[in-house]
């Protein structure tokens, strides 16, 4: 009798773990989704308004340093077969004139980044 209950519990748990892939889990995207073509439009000496026009508002503005904006995008996959979780970020630093001084992060900058729009 004891072995029968144990066998039933073991088989039931084995079947339930095998069914785990049948449950649909959604992907959870969070933050600013940026495309490389949008990042390619960035130029040195752009104003904050121009950056907002190209990339949108940042997810995080540093409360202690108003001259640094963080664009962060996180994708948490619901199921491993759709790919791995990932994070991409872009950090835009402004100078004292509220113009782009530097850009760092997970994106490649265009060759024209160091050419201001005024020229």
Automatic annotation (TrEMBL):
Signal peptide: none annotated. It is a lipid-anchor. Keywords: Cell outer membrane, Lipoprotein, Membrane, Palmitate, Signal. It is found in: Cell outer membrane. The keyword Membrane applies. Residues 31-102 form the Outer membrane protein assembly factor BamE domain. The keyword Membrane applies. Belongs to the BamE family. Part of the outer membrane protein assembly complex, which is involved in assembly and insertion of beta-barrel proteins into the outer membrane. Part of the Bam complex. This is Outer membrane protein assembly factor BamE. It comes from Fluctibacter corallii. The gene is bamE.
């Amino acid at each position: 009798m004891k072995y029968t209950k144990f066998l039933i519990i073991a088989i039931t748990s084995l079947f339930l773990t095998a069914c785990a892939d049948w449950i649909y889990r959604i992907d959870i995207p969070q933050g600013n989704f940026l495309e490389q073509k949008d990042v390619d439009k960035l130029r040195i000496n752009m104003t904050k308004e121009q950056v907002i026009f190209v990339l949108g508002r940042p997810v995080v503005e540093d409360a202690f340093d108003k001259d640094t904006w963080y664009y962060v995008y996180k994708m948490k996959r619901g199921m491993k077969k759709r790919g791995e979780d990932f994070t991409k970020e872009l950090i835009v630093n402004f100078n004292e004139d509220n113009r782009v001084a530097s850009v760092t992060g997970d994106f490649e900058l265009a060759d024209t980044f160091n050419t201001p729009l005024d020229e």
